[in-house]
Hints:
Elements: H1 11-14, H2 17-26, H3 29-52, H4 65-78, E1 82-84, H5 88-93, E2 100-104, H6 112-124, H7 129-155, H8 158-169, H9 172-178, H10 184-210, H11 229-244, H12 248-269, H13 275-302, H14 304-308, H15 321-338, E3 360-364, E4 376-381, H16 386-409, H17 418-432, H18 448-463, H19 470-498, E5 502-504, H20 505-509
Antiparallel strand pairs: 1-2, 3-4, 4-5
Helix pairs in contact: 3-7, 3-8, 4-6, 6-7, 7-8, 7-9, 7-10, 8-18, 9-19, 10-11, 10-12, 11-12, 11-13, 12-13, 12-17, 16-17, 16-18, 17-18, 18-19
Amino acid sequence: MTEPVPLLPPPAQRSTLWGRFRMRFLADPEWAGILRWFVPLLITTLAAVLRLVNLDRPHELAFDETYYVKDAWSLWALGYEGTWGDGANEQLRTGDTGALDARGSFIVHPPLGKWIIAIGMGLFGPGSSGGWRLTTAILGTATVLVVYLVALVLTRSLPVAAIASSLLAIDGLSIVMSRIALLDGILTFFIVLGFLFILLDRRRTMPVLERPDDTAPDPLWGRVLWRRPWIVAAGLALGAATAVKWSGLYALAGLGIYLVVTDALARRRAGVLYWPMDAAARQGPITFLLLVPPALLVYLVSWTGWLVTSAGYDRQSDANPLVALWNYHQSMYGFHTGLTSGHAYASPAWQWPLLLRPTAVWVDSADQSCWGTDHCIAVISAVPNPLIWYGGVAAAVYLLYRFVRGLVRRQPMPWQYGVPLVGLAVTYVPWLLVPGRPIFQFYTVAMMPFLVLALALALRDLAGSRRDPLYRRQAGERTVMVFLVLAVLISVFFYPIWTGMNVPYTFWLVHNWLPGWV
């Protein structure tokens, strides 16, 4: 007699915890609709709280705020960057701007980021430290939402989008650079916004380009598309990034190349015989016209205050204001290429993945009691969440491996892997080309959105897919959950060091995991 075949457990019992959640909520159209707006709202609210609470601490200019805050008020008052006299930092804390002189000052960054900082100062006055930082914090919060949208467009997966944006929301470098009136957080927002617009263009145009054109008289050539409004939007965003810092140009150039390459590959899939030439010589010039002139327009508009006044630095170097602006830019370029002076917190780009020298933005070691002890310190350290940082670097290496392996073996690969790699290429690789110039670890705030995207994709692969055995998915999902819980706990542990809270000296010491973190 044969033994009876055991009955299989119900499908819900054979699935993982995430599988049961997906079946219960994401498979239900009503629940899925609620989650698609509730999840980003919740994550963005968390990001806002972490960035806006006690934003006015410290009530003094911290690190390079001494340049950008004063320049911001000068733009608000004069339309261009003026000259500040001695004692300006102390006077500004009280709202006294008497140290501002109308003589033009030589400034080495475009004005848009400082105009954005000036909005908060205009609303709350020059003496409000919260006003100095308000718009930077708002854009830092908005960056979290944009990363959510980028991940959602990239993967069409709510969990991947939620993980990527949540990791950015709780990351220390992103929090610090949102709470300090520097340019790099603003730059990051516009770069990520440009990426979002490029992905929206890809979603709209790739199905058209990949479809063979049965009406074309010659199969040698593919379609040429003019109607690509998201490229124009990307040009505006990346022009704004360049108008904050010139490093935005790398994103503009890199995404322009990305558009040509993806257009070429789409034509190849459509069976176009001369697909490289078709994308470069026929569609390429049109893409250039859609992308670059809008970027140039935004950049020039950002200089309006300097152009319409007469006392800005180098403004009188030529009767033609555009020629005078060109002369000014030559001086700015000379400064950037000739800068060699050192700094205590300088960190060459090769060190950045190792996180050897994060920047201490502000330190106050005044004797005061806290937590029942008299030996206290207040620090704002722009150190990322170490688990998120090193995990993101490892994930980027994993994505690069998968990408290269797919190319070598001519295997199909998830195209999503390429987007974080492009983002890291345009925000990191250019800094490797200037080893002699003093640069800082906090510049990597522009890399963080792409590191968390890479990390979210790697965690998705680690969690497994429905094609994997049950034990594999269970082990993968548990590992991902442990990672996420540890990331949250580490952020809680470091948050006082990111926001300048008064803490015991010994508490601060245990956060210095490497010698260069002091």
